[in-house]
Structures are given as C-alpha cells and as structure tokens.
Write a structure and sequence with these properties.
alpha+beta, seven-stranded antiparallel beta sheet, 18 helices, 23 strands
C-alpha cells in the first residue's frame, strides 16, 4: 500500500531510509538524502550493497535538468578475455566458469566505485559534506545496529560461501552461527576506515594507505586488482539516455547500465499497443514476455563497454527498429506464437535502489550493488570491507561485446530512471534484483504509462520474466490461465523469482508525493 507525503519521500533500503528523511528535514536536498541513505545501507544491509561495491548510476533531476553519474566498476588492467576457465557453454552466449572464480573469491574482485560515485554526486549536486553524509554509517558501525529479517535470511542462505572466508565469517556470523532477526551487529573496523575517508576524502580510499591494504590482501591471495587500478578509477558525469513514451519523457542511465534496454522495452510496448490486452491477463503476459525477450536479444548481440566496442545504440533505439519490433510483438500475441530464442544462464543479484524526491521536487534515482549478494565474499582483514564481484558481470568467454578486457566496464542490470511530464517531475523509479531489474521496471512503467493504471497497482501487479530464452518465470498471482496459455504458445515455465523489488515515487499535479515500496519487500515508505 502506497503512502502519501507533502514535503519529501525516500523509498529504498527500508533499514536506512529514515536517515535520508532526517537529511531532508534538516534542509538537505534529494542528492544529500540519497547519498546518506546509500552509505548507511552499505552497513546495515551489506548483502545488498557495500563500500566495496559499485554502481549502477545515479540519475538526478535538479534545477530543471536531468544529469547522470556513472560509477560502474571496471576490470583491473591485468584482466584478459581468457582469464577464466569456462566449464560449460551453449556455444553462443551463455557460459559457466569453473569454481565460479569470476563470482566468488579474489579473482572476482574489480575496482570499487561506490565512494567515488557518491562523493562526486555530493560535489556536483549536494549541499552536505561527505563527512556529514557518512556520519550515520559511521555511527551504525561503531554503536551497532539491529539485524533485520532480510539480513539474517541472506546470511543463512549464503552461509556456505561465508565460511570459505574467515574474515567474512567473523563479520557476519554470531557465535559462529547465522544471526537471528533482532540480534545486534557492528563493524568497528569499517567505522574507523570510514572516519579516515571522512577526514581525508575519497583519495585516501583510492590512492592512500587504504588502497595499499586492499590491494595487498587481494594480491597475496591470487587476485589481480592493483594499486594502479585504484588510482586510475574515476566516477564520471555522463549524459542520460532519453526516450519519449505516451507523451512522457523517460531518462535512464546509459551503457553500461541497462537503461537502453528498459527504454527500448517501453517504446516497443507503446508501438505494440499492449493496452489492447489490458483485460486479458494471458495475452498481456505474452506481450510483455515478447517485449522483454526482444530487448534481451539486442543486449546479448550488441551491448558492451562503448569505449571498447562499437555498440549500435542509435540503431537499437531507432524508430525503424522499434516500429518493426513492436509490430512483430503485436503479431506474435495476435497469432499465439513466440519469437526467436537464445540460451542464457541466470545471475543472482546483491543490489539496492533508492528513490528520493525533496521539498523542491528535485528527484534522484540511485542503484548500487556488490554484484551477487556479498559480492566476492572477500573481506579485507582489520578493515571490515567486503569486496565486490564485478567480474561476474562480464561474459567469461572471449570474442563477445561484453567479454572481459583490461579496464573495461561490464554491462550491468541496474537502470535507475526518472520520468518527466513536460518539464515537470513525475516519477523516480528503480529496482534491485539482478537480471529481473529491467524487466520489472518495464512492466511497472508500462502499466503506469501505457495502460494508465495507478502506481500502487502498477508496482503490486504480478510480473513475468525472461531473458531471450524459451523459458518464462511467472508470479502465481497471474492465476492458472496465463501460465497454461504461455505453455500452449511454446514456452517452458521455470520456477524462481520473476520480479525485482521496485521503489517508486510519483509527483501529483497537486505536488503531493505518492511513495511506493514493492510489497515483495518488507518495510514501509518513509517521508514527511
């Protein structure tokens, strides 16, 4: 159930959102609140994101303009396209790595971007200092915090990998066992490190003694991250990707995020006139599945780091391509057929998202991650810093647009998005949930913008998920008719989560804010 607020709202990681609201009440803007909530979430919800993680991006509407900060990870300079042994592959696009070396352990670690990205956001658009934004996170590290049910559940599910790394086990286990909801946890080492950053700036993390200690531990254990990689890293101010849909202007993060795919899906849905099937759950699910799959096929074929490979974004987003694909989708639904299929493995996600709107109706959509939950599971001794698994976001096989390469950025699933109505702020939206992020955001935006459903139902409604494969995941709330219909079309139903966790805030014409936290998450919307 959505909540309404008059002044400001923060919808993100429930354990940390109140800190963002406090910032707004103190006169901070949406960027200050988003950064503060993100830093605290990196402590109290460390399965979802962390200081050793990366973006994602932040999309900002401030002063009447939309801007974007890219703090995606990059591969170390020693990375090569053949650095991982591929244990299994379908020969085209899907590969599995021996011992999951690209996802678990020291060779999975890429350059962290969180501190650089959030510091740049404050520098360019915020009013708070980095020390002020870090203060709640430091207090949580030093004084401890109450463990949430989500925190306890994720530790239990990841216990096997956690125990592989003694420092991580010391950090996350309580009396050598997974904690229970309501237990207290603290991370005093991380608190001391963040105090250093607050005093000396992010340069200490990337170029000083902190970087030396990170690199030394990783290299001593077979990793390839080097001091030069840390020193060279920079978050960047970039142009957001834009598309018009149903009279609205959509702005999302550009490559290497999945913003292009999300906006492509929304435009295809408009051309395919999915609103014609609004009262037919089975055919609406079919149309959404075909739209999702079409965008994923383009992602597999073309998308990689645009600084390293030629990515035909203009072709993908062209009226000709969108029009042809939209008409194909409409024909598939009308004729009860399915489109081309490819194979692809699933990747898990350890991600969080924060949407913020402030009293001046500035908007922020911010997504950040570890990669998989707890990233690589590597924790730096006497620092309490758990490192990302950014290398897992590359294709481990050579010769593909998203293959590993020195200094390359991987294609990631995050796509924080803002919607304007004319020149006015309308929706700040994003999600966490791995590969399900773009498909879930597409379905929510399609229901809100194309089918003209209210935001609360758009976020709550059942969803489907596919990735260009012949399988489809469906939430059981669709009932029995829709799954049976998709099977008759030729799809295989697959068990698993079909939905990412969406957070959205809508600005009404009266200026009232409607904040919506996905009911698939435990928590409540925060604001004032």
């Amino acid at each position: 159930m959505s909540l309404t607020f008059d002044h400001g709202a923060v919808v993100g990681q429930p354990e940390a959102d109140s800190a963002g609201v406090t910032v707004l009440k103190k006169g901070g803007n949406a960027v200050d609140a988003a950064v503060t909530a993100a830093l605290l979430a990196s402590v109290v919800a460390s399965h979802a994101s962390g200081i050793g993680g990366y973006g994602g991006m932040m999309v900002v509407y401030i002063g009447g303009e939309v801007r974007c900060i890219d703090f995606n990870t990059v591969a170390p300079r020693a990375a090569t396209p053949t650095m991982y042994e591929v244990a299994r592959s379908d020969g085209r696009f899907g590969s599995a790595v021996k011992d999951r070396a690209n996802a678990v352990g020291y060779r999975a670690v890429s350059v962290p971007g969180v501190l650089a990205g959030l510091a740049l956001a404050l520098e360019k658009f915020g009013t708070f200092s980095l020390a002020d934004a870090l203060a709640p996170a430091v207090r949580a590290c030093q004084n401890g915090f109450r463990i949430s049910a989500a925190y306890a559940d994720r530790v239990a599910r990841c216990e096997r990998n956690i125990r592989m790394f003694p420092e991580t086990a010391r950090l996350l286990l309580v009396d050598n066992a997974p904690p229970s909801a309501g237990d207290r946890a603290r991370n005093t080492y991380l608190g001391k490190m963040l105090e250093q950053v607050a005093r000396k700036g992010v340069e200490e993390f990337y170029k000083g003694r902190i970087a030396d200690r990170i690199v030394a531990h990783i290299q001593q254990n077979g990793g390839i991250l080097a001091k030069e990689d840390m020193e060279a890293y920079q978050a960047r101010l970039v142009e957001p990707v834009h598309a018009a849909c149903m009279g609205y202007d959509l702005y999302s993060a550009p490559l290497c995020s999945s913003g292009v795919s999300l906006l492509q899906m929304c435009r295809i849905a408009e051309v395919a006139e999915l609103d014609l099937w609004a009262r037919d759950a089975a055919r609406l699910a079919h149309g959404m599945t075909e739209t999702i799959r079409a965008a994923w096929l383009d992602r597999y074929r073309h998308f990689g780091d645009p600084t390293a490979v030629d990515v035909p974004v203009d072709m993908v987003m062209s009226d000709v391509n969108i029009g042809a694909t939209g008409r194909e989708v409409a024909d598939y639904v009308s004729e009860g057929k399915h489109g081309q299929c490819l194979l692809r493995p699933l990747y898990s996600g350890g991600t969080t998202h924060i949407s913020v709107v402030d009293v001046d109706r500035n908007m922020v959509s911010l997504t950040l991650t570890h990669g998989p939950a707890y990233g690589s599971f590597v924790t730096i001794p006497r620092m309490g810093l758990t490192m990302n698994a950014g290398m897992s976001r590359f294709d481990p096989g050579a010769g593909l647009p998203n293959s590993v390469g020195p200094g390359k950025a991987p294609v990631v699933n995050m796509c924080p998005t803002l919607v304007l109505k004319g020149r006015d702020p309308f929706i700040a939206i994003g999600a966490s949930g791995g590969t399900r992020i773009p498909s879930s955001l597409f379905q929510v935006l399609t229901r809100r913008l194309v089918l003209d459903e209210d935001l609360d139902w758009a976020v709550s409604a059942p969803r489907v998920h596919s990735e260009g494969n012949k399988w489809v995941m469906m939430e059981e709330e669709f009932g029995e008719a829709a799954p049976a219909y998709l099977q008759s079309v030729g799809y295989m139903l697959r068990k698993g989560r079909a939905a990412a966790n969406v957070r959205a805030i809508e600005v009404a014409e009266s200026s009232e804010l409607t904040a919506t936290l996905d009911p698939r998450l435990s928590g409540r919307e925060k604001g004032y």
